[in-house]
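Lab notebook, bench 4. Continuing the backlog of folding jobs that were queued last week. Each job is logged with the same field layout so the records can be merged later without manual cleanup. Today's entry covers Quinoprotein dehydrogenase-associated SoxYZ-like carrier, a 272-residue chain. Filled in by technician R.K.

JOB TYPE: sequence-to-structure
TARGET: Quinoprotein dehydrogenase-associated SoxYZ-like carrier
LENGTH: 272
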Amino acid sequence: MTRWTRRLPLIAALLGIAFTLPAQAEEADDPWPGLVQDIFNNRAMNDGSAVIGIEMPYRAEDAAIVPVTLRSKLSPADGRRIRSITLVIDRNPAPMAAKFELGADANVTEISTRVRVNNYTDVHAVAELSDGQLYVSKVYVKASGGCSAPAGKNAEEAQSRLGKMRYRQFAREEAQASRIREAQIMIGHPNNSGLQMDQVTQLYIPAFFVNQLKLTQDDSPVLSMEGGISISEDPNLRFTYVSNGAKRFRAEAKDTDGHVFRNEWDVEKPGT
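JOB STATUS: finished
OUTPUT FIELD FOLLOWS
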């Protein structure tokens, strides 16, 4: 037996320690248990794999505009409904990205938006159902620097578009028979995170973002959002819902400076 052969067990043991310690450290540093306590008052979390789906790219092309889709996985025969969905980006500076309240009669089954991701992180979707229970699903995303990335538009351009809204509808084959609609709301707003730096003054730009959004068909609630700094510049929501026959679709948004933006559209003639 050579000297190196005799040392192989020791080398293997040391390598095992080297690979185990970072994993243990990462597990010990997992922010999720603390977030469950802070955001959800330590309520019990049930497996949401059959309740709520969350889709995001494993490796984001642009950490400042990472697409995310939340999708109900409840079967039509399930008597429960999703009341709200909370999107948590665990390692972001402000982890709660958004909370979506779903209209009782709107049957919203899918929501897509764009978010900032600041570090490699788990992202959780927590659905609260009409049975009062919480159900959680998660994905892992590789992205970094999204919350501090410079804005895509300069201050003057952003100001000129502040609060401007667009509403679009998308054709669905089953729409006529089921009254299912797919729509999109876009809001012009810088949604400054507070972590971005002005490239001229080298000073941090104060946080300034849309923190409330309410969507209704006539006066019947469809979807509302409580947003945070993780929602990307120019907030964009695409979603499905069931039409109640209303002729007008309405949107009201508020931001952290107290601005209120309102608009409404003819359901049959969506646009600017």
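OBSERVATION: The CA atoms of residues 194 and 207 lie 4 Å apart.
SIGNED: R.K.
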